[in-house]
């Protein structure tokens, strides 16, 4: 994230990772979508479907700070004119530049932030059905792509199997 200089763009990317958002969802967060009291963020996702996702306190603090720098009455991440949200194209451009500046050679894209969010939740023991709801997936099969065996999962599984075998 350090390679992203624009604070509005950086906050969008942080929000994607912290809340599992798609790039378009992060771009279109309105001030009224943030519930400070409950610590949740209202998202209008694909197909105009609404969902609420937990908003971690450190991320909420970043959102407050960002808003204090521009005080746009409607958009958390306004475009340059202040009349609409930042564009997905602008975010994509910034992401590509940041990847290049960071020296990352593998093909990566902003959706990887959402993928990382889901993977980390599953690694920490969150049920797949809960992750499905948080991501706004209609079908659990869509969420199942995140159920791959990661290294920490493999290590944990191996330790469990080793213990089972010693108890025979």
UniProtKB/TrEMBL annotation:
<dbReference type="InterPro" id="IPR013762">
    <property type="entry name" value="Integrase-like_cat_sf"/>
</dbReference>
<dbReference type="InterPro" id="IPR011010">
    <property type="entry name" value="DNA_brk_join_enz"/>
</dbReference>
<dbReference type="GO" id="GO:0015074">
    <property type="term" value="P:DNA integration"/>
</dbReference>
<protein>
    <submittedName>
        <fullName>Tyrosine-type recombinase/integrase</fullName>
    </submittedName>
</protein>
<dbReference type="GO" id="GO:0006310">
    <property type="term" value="P:DNA recombination"/>
</dbReference>
<feature type="domain" description="Tyr recombinase">
    <location>
        <begin position="1"/>
        <end position="162"/>
    </location>
</feature>
<dbReference type="Pfam" id="PF00589">
    <property type="entry name" value="Phage_integrase"/>
</dbReference>
<keyword id="KW-0233">DNA recombination</keyword>
<dbReference type="InterPro" id="IPR050090">
    <property type="entry name" value="Tyrosine_recombinase_XerCD"/>
</dbReference>
<dbReference type="GO" id="GO:0003677">
    <property type="term" value="F:DNA binding"/>
</dbReference>
<dbReference type="InterPro" id="IPR002104">
    <property type="entry name" value="Integrase_catalytic"/>
</dbReference>
